Amino acid sequence: MSDLIKIIGIKAKGFHGVLERERKRGQIFLVDVELYLPLKNLNDQLDRTVNYAEVAQVVKVEITGKPYQLIETLAESIAKQILKKFKKIKKVRITVHKPNAPIPLKFKDVSVVIERSR
Length: 118
Known about the structure:
It is built from 3 helices and 4 strands; from the N terminus they run βαβααββ. It has one domain (3-117): GTP cyclohydrolase I, C-terminal domain/NADPH-dependent 7-cyano-7-deazaguanine reductase, N-terminal domain (GTP Cyclohydrolase I, domain 2, 2-Layer Sandwich), CATH 3.30.1130.10. The two termini are 13 Å apart. The protein has helices at 20-25, 52-64, 71-85; strands at 3-14, 27-37, 91-97, 111-117. Strands 1-2-3-4 form a 4-stranded antiparallel β-sheet. Helix content is 29%, strand content 31%. The chain is of the alpha+beta class.
């Protein structure tokens, strides 16, 4: 398998949710990204790998952009954009956390994890 770059806890406000109040008020979402790609023979050259600052920006744009009802759809959109823009990535694993989901019980987190590959 390929090597791995992780970006954990990209944080931004989005307006995703089934409930109207979620789409109006918005809330904070956290996204973890795992990028699988070959990292050998880089010779310390950035252009031979992936600029993770650029990946994080793609994630932020997706979180703050078009609202979705489901975080599953948000995760899918993030994965699709990353694979589209960064050709060196062979597989991506996206975790979208919705820590303030409208659940009337105490809980720590709700998250969705998806993997997509070329």
